[in-house]
Design goal:
alpha/beta; Aldehyde Dehydrogenase, Chain A, domain 1; Aldehyde Dehydrogenase, Chain A, domain 2; 7-stranded mixed beta sheet; 6-stranded mixed beta sheet; globular
Length: 478
């Protein structure tokens, strides 16, 4: 049974939409309707906007120490409820239950980190060139914030916005994905039950374009944070321009993986195969373009194919499942299109390349070899369980190919040569570089891309700073 009651959160009160509109939430493993997610009307959105303005006044005046205590209490409640929240996540998004628990564990860590870091939003004193003058630089919350997030990490995408805003002293309106609403509602309940002041956190749902355009047209939010696709991110930037909102954009990527001949191939394969099929490849930092040096190419393709064949696919609530379904039926068609195009360009399917079963949105773990650079899958992010592999000869060649796209989120390198690692770390045009492991996302480190993958960071001191503004004060004779 779906554990979460779906409601809007406006001014500290849980409610349904005032016009009674809603849409179904579908379990992607069973195609069962789990619940109806309510849509906020225009009047509901206006109430949320006003509530965030009033909530900001209260939360900003709350000391960082008191704010941290509330956030810590929310994190403790999440820990107590972790099984129910993870079950909700798996049922609405599809990933294996164990993977969902790991995600909610990360959510808890992010909340705790931002709560603590909010106590360290330091300013500084600047020596004055004028006798008797004091010069102070202080950090203060930027104001009410708004956020819009994608469905692929229903907990992580939500908490990075909420905890970053609250840790800095901002209020926030967040619109999670209507496909995965329950996880966000469960997290918000923890904050409300922890004693968050009314209006500090507001959660709304609705038709994405209608909700975002209405909220962004308001002068109340001073900050917008978005996780999602590049086209939508560009659209939101344009909407934000009229009111000069500060923006953080965490957009799509197409992560290159460079495997040099000197890498430990077995360790590399064991690492990459697990990481590639995590969340059925529906990860913005998923390895998606595999470049393997010539001498290791044949062994790598064979080893990756063997591991892909062994992945256990099924309902994420079943024991032993390693990969769940895609989020929706529409994604199956996209996978078929990528595979067909790769074949048309001369690639070979070494395993997979087809839908699985007749219920749920399952697609087989797929490995494609000898994929040319002009195949669609090497140009557009697949966002699914597809692993296109090609080979390269020289260092300069692979750097040029890895940097050939306008995206720059994550990138990965496998080598046993420290000098080579240092050289390619500098050469890769990406916001995140993982060498010999894929751990590029932690609460205490900055997460974000460059170029068309967006700008700004979540996580680390950079993530807190995104919700702060700088004020300079100089005084004489006080």
């Amino acid at each position: 049974m779906y554990p979460e009651k779906l409601e809007l959160l406006i001014n500290g009160e849980w409610c349904q939409g005032s016009e009674g509109k809603s849409e179904p939430v579908i379990n992607p493993a069973t195609e069962e309707v789990l619940a109806e997610v309510p849509h906020a009307s225009v009047s509901d959105l206006d109430r949320a906007l006003q509530a965030s303005a009033e909530g900001f006044k209260v939360w900003r005046a709350t000391s960082p120490l008191q704010r941290q205590a509330v956030i810590e209490k929310a994190a403790s409640l999440m820990q107590e409820r972790i099984d129910d929240i993870a079950r909700t996540l798996t049922m609405e998004m599809g990933k294996p239950f164990g993977e969902s628990k790991v995600e909610i564990g990360f959510v808890i860590d992010v909340a705790r980190w931002y709560g603590e870091e909010g106590k360290r939003a330091y300013g500084r004193l600047v020596p004055s060139r004028f006798p008797g003058a004091r010069q102070m630089v202080v950090k203060e919350p930027v104001g009410p914030a708004c956020a819009f997030v994608a469905w692929n990490f229903p907990g992580t995408n939500v908490i990075r916005k909420i905890a970053g805003a609250l840790g800095a002293g901002c209020s926030i309106i967040i619109k999670p994905s209507e496909e995965t609403p329950g996880t966000a509602v469960a997290i918000a309940r923890c904050f409300q039950d922890a004693g968050l002041p009314p209006g500090t956190l507001n959660v709304v749902f609705g038709v994405p374009g209608e909700v975002s355009s209405h909220i962004l047209a308001s002068s109340i939010p001073r900050k917008v944070s978005f996780t999602g696709s590049i086209p939508v991110g560009k659209h939101l930037l344009k909407l934000s321009a009229d009111t000069l909102k500060r923006c953080t954009m965490e957009l799509g990527g197409h992560a290159p993986v460079v495997v040099f001949d000197d890498a430990d191939i077995e360790k590399t394969l064991n690492t990459l195969a697990v990481f590639k099929f995590r969340n059925a490849g529906q990860v913005c930092i998923s390895p998606t373009r595999f470049y393997v040096q010539d001498k290791s190419y044949k062994a790598f393709v064979e080893g990756f194919t063997e591991r892909a064949k062994a992945v256990k696919v099924g309902n994420g609530m079943d024991d032993g499942i390693e990969m769940g379904p895609l989020i929706a039926d529409r994604r199956l068609d996209v996978m078929d299109e990528f595979v067909a195009d790769a074949k048309d360009h001369g690639a070979s399917i070494t395993t997979g390349g087809e839908r699985m079963g007749n219920q749920g949105y399952f697609y087989s773990p797929t490995v494609l070899s000898d994929v040319p650079d002009d195949a669609r899958i090497m140009v557009d992010e697949p966002f699914g369980p597809l692993a296109p592999i090609t080979h390269f000869n020289s260092f300069d060649e692979v750097v040029e190919r890895a940097n050939s796209l306008p995206f720059g989120l994550a990138s990965y390198v496998f080598t046993s040569d420290g000098g080579k690692a240092a050289k390619i770390e500098d050469a890769l045009d990406a916001g995140l570089v993982g060498v010999n492991h894929p751990g590029v996302a932690t609460p205490e480190t900055p997460f974000g891309g460059v170029n068309e993958s967006g700008y700004g960071s979540e996580g680390g001191i950079e993530g807190l700073d995104a919700f702060l503004r700088t004020k300079f004060i100089t005084e004489v004779g006080v």
